[in-house]
Amino acid sequence: EVEKLNQQLEEKNGEIQQMINQPPYEKEREILRLQKTLAEKEKAQATSDVLCRSLTDETHQLQRKLASTAEMCQHLAKCLEEKQRKEKGDLDDQIPTERSNQVFLQPLHDETSLQTLICNLQDENRMLKQKVAHV
């Protein structure tokens, strides 16, 4: 291992001697090349930083939107439960007549549309979660 390190040291010393022996214009050319490479890498790093910040901001926006959608879903589910309880209580209190039979059929339609709304919100919630995971 010491021999290997000594060999690498000799190679590096040879490179240094070769650079020292180069004419000044070649040294300047190498310096310019290295400066250009450094500038390109700094530009790439700056672009990467901007993109990273942009993605971070978008992630935070999507998380806030997801949280508000989840909150809305919980609110709608609570409203649906309350409405179902009220309708059940109203149905128990009503006298069975032809009119009450019509009222009985109406909540089923409303419940179906509310279920559809809940399903749509759950789908939207799922899609937002997928977007957040992707980001």
UniProtKB/TrEMBL annotation:
The keyword Lipoprotein does not apply. One of its GO terms (biological process) is cellular response to lipopolysaccharide. Keywords: Coiled coil. GO terms for cellular component: cytoplasm. Residues 1-14 have a biased composition (Basic and acidic residues). The keyword Electron transport does not apply. Residues 1-25 are annotated as: Disordered. It comes from the Eukaryota. This is TNIP2 protein. The gene is Tnip2.
